[in-house]
Specification:
It contains 7 helices and 2 strands. It is an all-alpha fold. It has a domain of 103 residues. The termini are far apart.
């Protein structure tokens, strides 16, 4: 019977490793250049860091602003998304609330940047249908919670 060898590694492991790919993609489309010139901040956290922080939460399956608090001490989260500063939950909520309607136009530019990325000189095949739509699998299961307290 073999023995277990337990030793501490010289680096940290993370269950959020997929964020590194998200961060690399956001860096490739230069999200900072899309967001920051259009929505200037004289002081405080850049708007691109606000968007990247919330996008990181969404990628982890979290959509509440308070969830950012658990990531504020997570060096990997900030490093993977190339954040210059990490917002607090009130800052995240207030900034997203303040700019929500203004950022709708920005979403179209970000989508265009994401969809125009090329690998090895060729556009990424997202599986577009001939009509131009992209098939998307969505869980549409809805529960009747009318009788719950």
């Amino acid at each position: 019977m073999s023995e277990f060898v337990v030793k501490q590694l010289p680096f940290d492991l993370s269950s959020q490793a997929g964020l590194a790919l998200i961060g690399k993609y956001l860096k490739r489309i230069n999200l900072n250049a899309l967001v920051d010139p259009a929505f200037l901040m004289r002081a405080g956290i850049a708007n691109s860091d606000i968007l990247k922080s919330y996008l990181g939460l969404l990628c982890l399956g979290k959509n509440d602003f308070v969830a950012i608090e658990a990531q504020r001490t997570n060096a990997f989260f900030a490093r993977a998304l190339h954040l210059r500063a990490m917002p607090s939950s009130p800052t995240l909520r207030q900034r997203l609330d303040a700019h929500a309607s203004d950022w709708f136009d920005l979403v179209e530019r970000i989508n265009a940047a994401v969809l125009s990325v090329k690998l090895a000189g060729k556009p990424i095949d997202f599986g577009l249908l001939p009509c131009g739509y992209l098939p998307l699998d969505v869980d549409t299961f809805a529960m009747d919670n009318s009788g719950t307290a």
